[in-house]
Amino acid sequence: MIIFLVKTIGIIGTGSLGQEVINALYIKGHKNIIATRHNKEKLELLNKQYPEITTSSNNCYAAKESDIIILAVKPKLIEEVCNEIKQYTNKKLIISLAAAKTIEQITSATNNKSTRISRVITGLYVAEQIAMCALSNNCTTDDREIIQYIFGQTAMERKEELLAHRTWIACATGLRPNAIDEEISELVKWGMNRQDANLIYAQDLESIAKRLRNGISGKEILNAVGGPESFTQGIANYLTEQHHYTHLRECVAKTIIACSKKK
What we know:
CATH architecture of the largest domain: 3-Layer(aba) Sandwich
CATH class of the largest domain: Alpha Beta
Radius of gyration: 21 Å
Helix content: 40-55%
Order of helices and strands: EHEHEHEHEHEEHEHHHHH
Number of strands: 8
CATH superfamily of the largest domain: NAD(P)-binding Rossmann-like Domain
Number of helices: 11
CATH topology of the largest domain: Rossmann fold
Distance between the termini: 36 Å
Largest sheet: 8 strands, mixed
Strand order of the largest sheet: 3-2-1-4-5-6-7-8
Strand content: 5-15%
């Protein structure tokens, strides 16, 4: 992987996700980065935070000078950005982090069949989470290694249609903590210290994560925590009656459908 350190990686669009990609590379000691953003004030802040990288508001400059191009822009901007930089994509690897925009659409937008395309879906905290990727047919073994270099050895290569499923899990990264925060706010209202609640929740989540890694299902964890006629089981029954889990499954399905269809 040391050979990849000398490659210049262009990150077009350095909002929250783009900055986390920079951070993941920084951890590896990779400073050969050109990061773009149109907001000059935020670009200056980025330059102060990562003084050893190159920053620019010019996407074409980043694409021209980079060996690898990462598109960290919103899905609605993918085709516009690809059209903007297409003359600088010849024989390069483009990695798109956008949901719902297919490899076929990105290839068409670059109008260059020699461009190698990969789509990567990951959580916001890139260095800590498992990415899922799909690659165009002309991608190479080196391209696969580059993706693992950037997004971690745990990155999973799967069929492109499964990236919509990973997109839901990325959404859940924000939704679940937000739901927990609602619960903590109620506990605080009833007299609990917020810091205590945060620490207890964090430790409990780590213990749950350990069991999920070992293949124990959520239902098994629920049954272990709350047996028949327990208070916990009573709450689970109430949530079922209120269609809480039905609504949750509907949200999963809506995300998969929205991120699978060709636009």
